[in-house]
Amino acid sequence: MRDRTGILARAATALGEAARGLRSDRRGVTAIIFAIALIPIAVASGASIDMGRAYVVKSRLAYALDAAGLAVGSAATNDEDELDQILQDYFDANYPEERMGTPATPEMEFVGNEIHLSVSAEVPTTLMNLVGIHEITVATTSIIVRETKGLEVAMVLDITGSMSGSKIESLKEAANDFIDILFGQEAENDKVRISIVPFNSTVNIGTNMSGFVKDNTSARFSPTTWGGCIEERVTPHDTNDEYVNNNNANGRWRAYAWPDTDNSVNNWPPVTATKGPNKDCPSAAILPLTSTKQTLKDKITSLQIGGRTHVPIGAVWGWRTLSPSPPFTEGSPYGDDEFDKAIIIMTDGDNTFDTDDDEYGGYGRSTTTANPPGAQHSSKLNCGSKSACENRINQREATVCTNIKNTGIIVYTVGFALTPGSTALELLEDCATDVSKFFNSPTNEDLKEAFKQIGTELSNLRIGE
Asked: pTM to 2 decimals?
């Protein structure tokens, strides 16, 4: 509101001008003196009335602005146009047009997790109008603290050989867009924790995680060393996040080592870029939950393609990065009111397993036969034909998805360039928490849009709590 002293000064100036106009006229001196005496009394009375009206308007403005700010603060959206509309709608509802004073459009600015609001109004004067003061401007401000809930997200990303060319580049763009949405301009945010789980037929848990594996001795890998990949445990321990610190079925994972074969598939030594015990082991290890934006972007940049598709292995390790129990323990406890958990499972193909050419992957070989026999390498699938093995993997995918959802984790699934009606699409749709969280993305642009939509929805989830 304008300073009262300034308003009274203007009134005094007007009074002085009126008095100077009467100096040369001596007629009716007594009446004039009386009239002059009435002017400051009238101005003072008018100022008091008009100032009172202005304070009423200021109070009503403050109430309407606070109500609108609280509505914006609790809105489940980050879209600026939507928030502007919410602000205006709630302000108008609490300050209707027939109210005294003509308000300007409320203004809003986001500063961190604070919403800074301001609005002003012009109040027409009554008696002060007689001395040239036609209106009084009043203004009010408000700051709303926008509380947010923490979010933990596992990004389970298919990096199999079929993701070559523009597909892997589109995935990297989509994943970066997703991270930008959740972090905004912030480089660090302890309320946002994201893990990245690249997968093909196995995952790389990192060579620093050797305490959780067995059989990673030099005898299995000479003349090289273990690359960080694992074989999955036997069912049902391949579809849960339980861990026991022993060498039993629900304990340590066996180190991934593709056996030396006597054919062109993986005849080693010598070890080369494409042959050896670490053949098709993803070079990019799992990135546990982190709140550092650039660390996530660097991991995405490092993704390289290769190998076959085993979606359930990627999915279960995505879950394990969200779990509070080992081997990754960065996840908040289940049921923690301060954090929501979500997982995004993205793939561009059906689960595959070839029983020819000494096939190997995160579930071992297709049969209990090993070549050479001394490798003692048995399958975790207990199947003998291509179709039987792939059906077993599909069953594992359905089971692990159900187990994840049973913990309360929100499951998003993205099918990329998949054949309409394929088993992969059906599995992904069933895996998602609900149909709105399943995205069929036939093209590169569709993939990017899917990740943007998921990012926006998860960002709104944080703010809406």
From this structure: 0.74
